[in-house]
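FW: tagging you since you asked about this chain on Friday. Here's the raw sequence from the shared folder, copied in full. Didn't touch anything.
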Amino acid sequence: MLWAVSVFLILLLLPLKECTGASFRGLLSSLAENMEQSRESAQHASALKNFRSFSCTQRKDGLYPDLSSECSSYYRCLDGAVYSYLCPSGQILTYGSDECRPKTEASCPEVPPATGPCVNQPDGFYPNYSEKCRAYYGCQNKSVVGGWWCERGAVWDLSTGSCKSGGDLVCSPPSCWGLPDGPHPSPASSCNAYFVCKNGVRTDHICAYQTIFDYYHKRCMPNQSAVCYDQGCEGKINGLHSVPKAPCHVYLRCFNGALVGLESCPQNYIFDGQQCVLANNFSCWEEGQGTCQGLRDGIHAAPNSECRGFFFCRHQQLIRTFKCTQGLVFNGKECVRKENFVCNSQSIVCTNKTDGYHTVEKTRCKSFYLCRGGVKMSVHTCPGNNMFDGEQCVDPVLHQCLDNTRHQQTSNLTNRVTRSF
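HL: got it, structure written out here
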């Protein structure tokens, strides 16, 4: 376990060309030395646990102390990404400083600047960060109505509104350091809470029942119409990602499973799961369905959509569904005019079919599809008057397409095609 923690922290240091307050070699040496001490090892584990509770989204580049570690660890924000560091033993980092200093020469506040309890706060329960979330207080009509302690070492959990016990307890008060004025999602709250910054001072808020904080709209919205962007990067690889229920032109930039930025395509463009594209022939389709199990990365035709729907897969995960505009259909690659593609999606079923190409019934041999492992992989349509002869599209003088009601298996061992006569 110690080896894994060491590797993780070292990797976090690699992207930086130089280290603040010490040389890169000196910092790695200090890190290795500290890891050999059991007390310091626990400190490293705690720093990693708190890593997910700090966000650099919209925060200025710079160094920020981790108050939950009494400033013995800190974060560096760089282009929206967050990196975690540890000060050398006996040193801490104060906000505004560019290096760790001995504890006798620096100070660490208990909590960042914030308004008093219940000042401008909605009714509800809030963690008492001064007591490391082991206590909480209640607000009603902008006044404190009581304070309570969680029992047996539990801490107040914003995501569930309850006292929580277990091995992954984190109490990290949010700060307005480096953030612009306005609302921001509270980390580790499952979008059930947010805080408002004004002149560097934080005011905590919780969303009303059955609402969550929507980062794009900057307010609490009903669950069914809101998006929890704060969790949008969990389990995602580094890069750009779309989010179900989000506007078509909005996408996430993710790094190490954390949200780096919420970005938008230019006007008249939408995000197709990989990049911004001109939205002149299709749009997002929130009601669309599809499964990516066994499918390659890319776009695939959606079932029961009259050939207008399609969806995008990445790593066998459904990224987003789309729908061609009225008058257009999806031909397996793009949206085209109806007269240029024969739609018969209901008959395209690969269950119990051999791997290979199969002709779509009642299309006069113009359309065919590829099955693999019982899953439809792609749909094809021959151009012009060409017909599918079981292997490829050919001139109709080279192939006679008879009634589609009689089928036979070919003996082609190359792609095991089912032909129609």
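FW: The helical segments are 2-13, 24-35, 38-50.
HL: agreed, and The mean pLDDT is 79.
FW: great, closing this out.
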